Amino acid sequence: MKKSLIAVALLLTGAAQAAPAPVEEVGGGGSTADRIARLERIIKARQQSEVDMQQRLDSLQQEVLDLRGLTEQQNYQIQQMLQRQRQLYDEIAKLGTSGTANSVPAQQSVTATTGSTPSSLSETDAYQQAVDLVLKQRKYDAAIPAFKSFISQYPNSTFADNANYWLGQLLYNQGDLTQAKVAFENVVSNFKESGKRADSLVKLGMIAEKSNDKNAARNFYNQVLREYASSAAARIAQQQLAAIKP
């Protein structure tokens, strides 16, 4: 799509350069004033043609930028899906080797739905239980203690950054900005390579805005632009920056 738009732009540019201006005979009869007037009309016609072409090029450039942003968002979503697939493969492999795929007692399932994380659950199962409370059961209040329990029990888990982000998002949605800030700061400070770090910085900027700390909000958004310039999070940060009134 990008190549097609660029090709169109080049063709339009070539057309603008090759297209002759309206033909008027500058020489010939008439007074000097008439010849000057005809020459001015030719110049104006060429200038207008250049303006029109520039406007078309500007429009095409904006379309390219929009498509680039859409591509970034789609790539981000694809990466998230691929990550989730890898997690599922790991879960299947662990279940296959442990032989516990169907051995979770009924009492464990009941306890998990209430938001607690039984110590007998594996790391992967405990994390998945908390996620399911959000995505499948829509029990957001119960998911908060489930993620807290998981983070407490598995602070160095490969899912710890995601768990902290989930927790921060749930608390943010509830309006508990203080605790949400702690969760997002944990992602930013302790998981430098996490795919959730840029999003957590954006959330910290939003929390700063809600707390009427515009300078802190700008700092967070600018950090995203510096460290994750080509990410979908950077686009959100740019939008938030533009919306902050002086």
UniProtKB/TrEMBL annotation:
Mediates coordination of peptidoglycan synthesis and outer membrane constriction during cell division. Keywords: Cell cycle, Cell division, Periplasm, Signal. One of its GO terms (cellular component) is outer membrane-bounded periplasmic space. Pfam families: TolA_bind_tri, TPR_16, TPR_6. One of its GO terms (biological process) is FtsZ-dependent cytokinesis. This is Cell division coordinator CpoB. It is found in: Periplasm. Its main location: periplasm. Residues 100-121 are annotated as: Disordered. Belongs to the CpoB family. The keyword Signal applies. SUPFAM superfamilies: TPR-like. NCBIfam families: tol_pal_ybgF (TIGR02795). Residues 32-101 form the YbgF trimerisation domain. Residues 1-18 form the signal peptide.
